[in-house]
Amino acid sequence: MASLEELNAARTLKLEALRQFGMDSYPAKVPRTFSLADARTGFAEYEKSVKPVSLAGRVMAIRGQGAILFLVLDDGTATFQAVVKKDTLSPELFDLLVRAVDIGDIISITGTLFTTQRGEQSILATSWTMATKSLLPLPEKWHGLADLDEKLRKRYLDFIMEPEMRDLFKKKAKFWQVTRKFLEDEGFLEVETPTLELTTGGAEATPFMTHLNDFDMDVFLRISIGELWQKRLMAAGFPKTFEIGRAYRNEGTSPEHAQEFTNLEFYWAYADYRDGMELVTRLYRKLALEVFGRTKFTARGFDFDLADEWKLIDYSEEIKRQTGIDIHTVTDMDLQNKLKELGVSYEGANRERFIDTIWKYCRKNIAGPAFLVNHPTIVAPLAKRVAAGGGEKGKVQGADTVQMFQPIIAGSEIGRGYSELNDPVDQRKRFEEQRKLLEKGDTEAMMPDWDFVEMLDHGMPPTCGFGFGERLFAVLAGKPLREAQLFPFVRPKK
What we know:
This protein has two domains: about 5-140, CATH 2.40.50.140; about 160-485, BirA Bifunctional Protein, domain 2. It contains 15 helices and 19 strands. It has helices spanning about 5-20, 35-40, 45-50, 90-100, 150-155, 155-160, 165-185, 225-235, 275-290, 315-325, 330-340, 350-365, 425-440, 450-460, 470-475, and strands at about 55-65, 70-75, 80-85, 105-115, 120-130, 190, 195, 210, 215-220, 240-250, 260-270, 295-300, 300-305, 310-315, 370-375, 400-410, 410-415, 415-420, 465-470. Strands 6, 10, 11, 14, 15, 16, 17, 18 and 19 form a nine-stranded mixed beta sheet that branches. It has about 500 residues and is an alpha+beta fold.
């Protein structure tokens, strides 16, 4: 088998042959009457009229020999067959095509549309020109790019060889379009908030840091989609807002995690977490039906139906049911021992991290759809506390739980929402607790935002906030998160 260097050298010689013939191998524009999809749609009309048309696309296959060749073109909208006969082209153009055109080249063919004896819609070439000469070959059809990192690194080749992957991202575009329209129809206003922040509020994650030269100061890339900013808008009198944007978290890569991703967050004044659960249920069902055409899915070893009733799962009860641990009374040492017993690794050395890690172990066994509720206050520094007797499932809750909800689907947390904390005294106290965690080395603890607390001193109405991201699309599509991103970050090839 020839090496890439040898193949490149052979194609470079063909490039020279095109130049000597006087054909530009990289013109700014080539003849093209319409897309290949439009050619198929309007085929009958143009076949009947016998008017010449021009079609362009990448050559995906060449077969035949002698005086007739069959080429398959692909322009990203459809595929189309071109028939090249020696007696319908000038001898020079036919010979040049045979000598200089390779699979992977992008060409334009002018001719008339006709139907072959086998019933194949085709164009009979009367002339052709090069649009782009490829100097490297496409991967072999049946072997392709076997290494996942190589597939993601050279995503353009993956899309060329696997056109169904292009369809995946058409669905993803629709996923966000449906989300946006749903919220707009519900009266939410789309807003834009800063991506560079002095403190990264709204989530618990290790941020990326950069330097702002003009002010000579370090700033952070946001880890949430403007949570603390959108809450300022609630205080300012905006009743409903949302933002769809990019977030950045300096964390590990996994089927559920990436360092850069798209998230949505919405905020709804005078609503609480129960209102949020009802709205989110309707939104997720609508996304399933309009994007995927169904509510039943199989993903990550689970079967679930978003049309089913979404049951409520109590945070502490579920942990106790699966592990025997009562998180309200267990010691930190016993938590660490249980994690070791379960074979679960963890980062950080504080109670919040221990509890969060043991919950993540438990959630992997839940198919859903369900809402996780009654979280302990320690894992939710921005959520309103549950008053005694006010918990879900009729259970009496003390002041150590919060009004928080998380959709659980296929063993994953697919979103997070709260009755937002608007008590400035309580918020100040919780930020102090987070500050102590940061000082002890917990890089995922939330940075205190004292300007935000000052806003709460002025008064923010009762508010429900909620966010979800690309993980929902990836789960419904049955893909790991990185494969559901167009260009995920990949370690450079050595």
